[in-house]
Amino acid sequence: MLKFDYHNVQASIIGAENGLEVEKEFEDYKDCIAKIIDELYANKDERNAWKKWMNLGYDEDTLWYINEFAAEVKDKYENMLVLGIGGSSLGGKAISHAILNPYWNSLSQEQRKGFPRVFFIDNIDPDTINGLLNIIDLRKTLINVITKSGSTAEIMAIYMIIKDKMKKECDDNYRESIVVTTDRNVGVLRQLAQQEGYKAFEVPDDVGGRFSVFSSVGLLPFAVLGIDIKELLRGVRDADKLAQNRNIYENVAAQNALIHYLLDTKKGKNLTVMMPYSSRLKYLSDWFAQLWAESLGKEYNLSGEKVNIGPTPVKALGVTDQHSQLQLYNEGPNNKIINFVRVEKFDTTLNIPDIFQYTGLSYLSGKTVNELINAEADATRVTLTDYKKPNVTITIPQVNEYYLGQLMYTFMMQTAITGALYNIDTFNQPGVEQAKNYTYALMGRVGYEESARILKEKMEV
Ligand code: PA5
Predict the structure, then answer these.
(1) pLDDT tens for each residue of 119-172
(2) Per-residue CA distances from 168 to 77, 124, 157, 398 (Å)
(3) CB contact at 8 A, 221 and 96
(4) Residue ID of nearest Cα to ligand 1 atom 15
(5) Is 323 annotated in the active site?
(6) How many CA atoms lie within 13 A of 12 on its CB side?
């Protein structure tokens, strides 16, 4: 199981100004946490509670349908294009980047064992999209269009470009190469899927984008790429069992939620740095940033009071950012909590050759890169602590499907518990919707005429 070390947030280690009396806080909050956990689980199946992500680890039917689809398309495609943005892309990117060979797209079809190369399109930079479309053969490409709302402008625009190109360049069966993942009932994409006869998978009801990675949103591309989704969901279920524990002393998600909440509200640490020590976990920070920011950044609390709260996530990567951001973390303002994610055992042991023994490099000779990365993680953790900067460490035994399922589900639960501590609606995102609506208005979407008029007035000022 994953391990959690909160030693370096304790007042006895980093001082009372910056640290917490953790054991006392656990004791003071133990009933409050138990109540939050009871409430989270009590109404998780209610319509509009937006908590059905808590059921995803147990969805055997979806697992079966997706594995069946993956078997159908195996060996048929050279590429898979995943079109999605925000919650419809970040989890997919995080897990596929972590699990697949780091240079997956450069491997031959044989080395990939018949699984396709993968490209995520999650932005609408015209040059990047054009660049990609110029190098892939759409006749050998599976397209997975993912959008819960079925109408997000960026994704619909790219879909339209690709569909048009496929119609012109591919044979009449091109529609078989488009598979959509969207809401069961609503949205333009659902209508189009029916009209065009695309294979369609559901984003389940009451699962928001940033909590959807373990639904068809993530599972479909993972299965097509040969990632073991059964193992992923086993990790999710095991993390869920731990998360259900009402006892804060045994619940990592609750412990880290309370630590972050108290460090923000009592000690002014309102920046959350996510810093995995593994390049394979680079996009975990991007996924976490959305989860944390969209869930916890809110204008009003549940009592209707204007609060404008939320910790700001910061993405970092060990060891790379030791040579970039660490100076600021150590010597800059003491307004952050650093979350290290460490890997106990890398798949590879990379030996540093035993050469140059009698030079200034002798300290490296005969060691391993594994030792070096872990020494650097330790050195950074200790230095931060010397500077009285709170930091926690989560350690996973290995980077694989099972532990990623555990880790990411634990972060989701941590976010849900933190939101409850702030007394906010963790599962809405009115700030994102507002910008989406303005975009529709500016682009002339029917029904948005009044917003367009107001916007134009504002933009002219
Ligand atoms: O978390 C969210 O709700 C958002 O980030 C969405 O995932 C993002 O805006 C994409 O929305 P959709 O899946 O409807 O295209």
Answers:
(1) 999 999 999 999 999 999 999 999 999 999 999 999 999 999 999 999 999 998
(2) 19, 22, 17, 46
(3) yes
(4) 147
(5) yes
(6) 6
Q: What is the DSSP letter of 94?
A: H
Q: How far is the CA of 86 from the centre of ligand 1 (A)?
A: 5
- What pLDDT, on the 0 to 100 scale, is given for residue 452? 85
Place of tokens 């330790």: 378
pLDDT in tens, 178-201: 999 999 999 999 999 999 999 999
- DSSP string spanning 230-256? HHHHHHHHHHHHHHT---GGG-HHHHH
**Which of 390, 124, 408 has its CA nearest to residue 291?**
408
Please give the structure tokens belonging to residue 461. 């000022």
Type of residue found at 171: D
| Ligand 1 atom at minimal distance to the Cα of residue 182 | 13
The full length of the chain comes to 461
Per-residue pLDDT tens over the stretch 251-261: 999 999 999 99
Instruction: Choose the residue to mutate in 216, 290, 432 for probing ligand 1, maximizing ligand atoms within 8 Å of C-beta.
Output: 432
Nearest to 404 by CA among 316, 281, 245, 291: 281
Pairing of strands 298-300, 306-309: antiparallel
Query: Which residue ranges have their beta carbon within 6 Å of ligand 1?
Result: 85-88, 147-149, 152, 155, 208-210, 294, 429, 432
Question: Ligand 1 mean position to 104 CA, how many Å?
Answer: 27
Q: Alpha-carbon Rg of the chain, whole angstroms?
A: 23
Task: Tell me how far the alpha carbon of residue 366 lies from the centroid of ligand 1, in angstroms.
Answer: 49
For residue 160, the number of C-alpha atoms closer than 13 Å in the C-beta half-sphere is 10
Catalytic residue among 323, 450, 457, 458: 323
Whether 52 is a known active-site residue: answer: no
Continuous H helices in 321-368: 326-331
Q: Do residues 216 and 181 lie in contact, with contact meaning Cβ atoms separated by under 8 Å?
A: yes
Active site residue 267: no
Cut 0.85: pTM above it: yes
